[in-house]
Design a protein that fits this description.
Helix content is 49%, strand content 17%. It is an alpha/beta fold and 259 residues long. It binds uridine-5'-diphosphate.
């Protein structure tokens, strides 16, 4: 894996956004950390944090704890970048779940990195796998399972994942379910890296179109999401509260010194 050999800093620089730790990494750096974690083999958790997750973590202490002890937390929204900039901190760029998975798929086609897709409606992850295999022949997606299972099915799913021996488990159960699921099972999965990736398989399967680039750049991807999926409204409602908190709180964003 060529990119894994590039040097990465030992301690990942981080900021705290309302007490939620987010690492200041670019897309390239995030992928390099993930590939290094794969080589090291210990079970690691990667979180892709957007503004709604930061807001949920204000009232959900368990979620906040999970994020704050995750091995890598990427800045997955323009809102987070904007909050940092307003408080004098430049974050490199947005690093989203769908972009990370897309990059890992390319690495997989080149190096044999083993990926497992867990989550989304029945059939969606399979459809994403078929599409990706057509675009990237040789990609190693060693298993997939939908994300609508009862608690009593979890032991069987854990066993399936263990037997598939992926290097990276991509979990799309929505926030905060996916973060809690990974936190609960990562020590028994035998998988080096588990990442919460939200609606990634919906996008990669072609069922949901991503917002146009201009909307993403303007930071109004939320508007696209809510017009295409009105169920997103409760998540989107968190965004003005996030913005208001950033504008009115002098200590909204601080550099984390002990990282
Ligand atoms: N999902 C799932 N199981 C659940 C709830 C959600 O597999 O019990 C999936 C859902 O089908 C979708 C993803 O999780 O593919 C969540 O996507 P969304 O864009 O809502 O992600 P978020 O914004 O929460 O990261």
């Amino acid at each position: 894996m060529e990119t894994a050999t590039l040097p990465v800093q030992e301690k990942i620089p981080a900021v705290s956004v309302f007490g939620v730790r987010v690492h200041a990494v670019s897309m390239d750096e995030a992928v390099r950390y993930i590939l290094r974690f794969v080589q090291e083999g210990a079970p690691r958790q990667v979180v892709t944090a957007d503004s709604s997750m930061v807001m949920m973590a204000q009232s959900d202490e368990h979620l906040r704890e999970i994020i704050n002890r995750a091995d890598l937390v990427t800045p997955d929204s323009i809102g987070i970048l904007w909050a940092c900039r307003r408080h004098g901190i430049a974050m490199p760029e947005r690093v989203s779940g769908v972009d990370i998975v897309s990059r890992l798929v390319q690495v997989s086609a080149q190096t044999g990195l083993r990926l497992y897709f867990l989550g989304a409606q029945p059939g969606v992850a399979e459809q994403a796998v078929k599409r990706l295999q057509a675009i990237y022949p040789g990609v190693q997606i060693v298993g997939c399972h939908h994300g609508y299972f009862p608690p009593e099915a979890e032991a069987g799913i854990v066993q399936q994942i263990r037997e598939a021996r992926p290097d990276v488990l991509c979990v799309a159960l929505g926030i905060p379910k996916q973060e809690k699921w990974i936190d609960r099972y990562r020590h028994v999965l035998g998988v080096p890296v588990s990442i919460g990736v939200g609606g990634t398989f919906d996008v990669l399967s072609g069922r949901v179109r991503r917002a146009p680039l201009w909307m993403q750049r303007m930071g109004i991807e939320w508007l696209w999401r809510v017009t295409h999926n009105p169920r997103k409204i409760s998540k989107v409602m968190l965004l003005p509260r996030f913005a208001w908190k950033v504008l009115t709180n002098h200590h909204a964003v601080e550099v984390v010194r002990d990282e």
